[in-house]
Amino acid sequence: MSGAADFTGTDPNSYLQIAKDELEQAGFEVHVFKDAAQRKAEGEEHVYFHTVMSEEANGSFTDKYDAAIMFANVAGFAQEASVRIKWSTPMAAEIPWYVTEVPTVYVSVNQPTHLIDVPTVKTVVHAHNPSREAIHAAVQKIIGASEFQGTFNDNVWCDTWGTRL
């Protein structure tokens, strides 16, 4: 998932190809989720939020996927120290509804406080930057090729009990 483009004109989705490449190099078969707006922008016709729901968020999800790795590049600017995730629609297919059925990792390449928006995800990684180097390092840590180091700031819990369940 990505936020909107900012005044710099930088494509907020440009990290997706990097993440896909890094995951494939690590041996994963990758399916990149696209919401209805992204699919329409690519020229697909007759696609709406409910068609995406029926294709992506259905009972066969657990049969199709062994794991889910969600990457998010949702950023603020200047006075926006924390930016919440804005799902494409209410009850959107990209909301991680499957976390109790499919091992799920959420990787933020920007904001460290998104646990408030995905509190049911049990593994959250903050990669700090949407660069190839940062995404490569995150993938290496996820697959166990490199150890996590450092400590987390208590702000990651978003000052709410629901993120600690």
Label this structure with key terms:
165 residues, alpha/beta, 5 helices
Description:
This protein is an alpha/beta fold and 165 residues long. The chain has one domain (15-149). 24% of the residues lie in helices and 8% in strands. It contains five helices and three strands, in the order ααααβββα. The protein has helices spanning 15-25, 36-41, 49-56, 61-64, 132-142; strands spanning 68-72, 104-108, 123-126. A three-stranded parallel sheet has the order 1-2-3, with no helix packed on it. The longest helix is centred in the N-terminal third of the chain and has 11 residues, at 15-25. The radius of gyration is 16 Å and the shape is globular. It starts with 14 loop residues before the first helix and ends in a 23-residue tail after the last helix.
Write the layout of secondary structure elements.
Elements: H1 15-25, H2 36-41, H3 49-56, H4 61-64, E1 68-72, E2 104-108, E3 123-126, H5 132-142
Parallel strand pairs: 1-2, 2-3
Helix pairs in contact: 1-5
End-to-end separation: 24 Å
Radius of gyration: 16 Å
What is the number of strand segments?
Answer: 3
- Uncertain regions: pLDDT < 50 for 5+ in a row? none
Total discrete domains: 1
Order of helices and strands: HHHHEEEH
Structural class: alpha/beta
On the 0 to 100 scale, the average pLDDT is 86
Looking at the structure, what is the overall shape? globular
Q: What percent of residues adopt helix (DSSP H or I)?
A: 10-25%
Strand content: 5-15%
The helix tally amounts to 5
Q: Largest sheet at a glance?
A: 3 strands, parallel
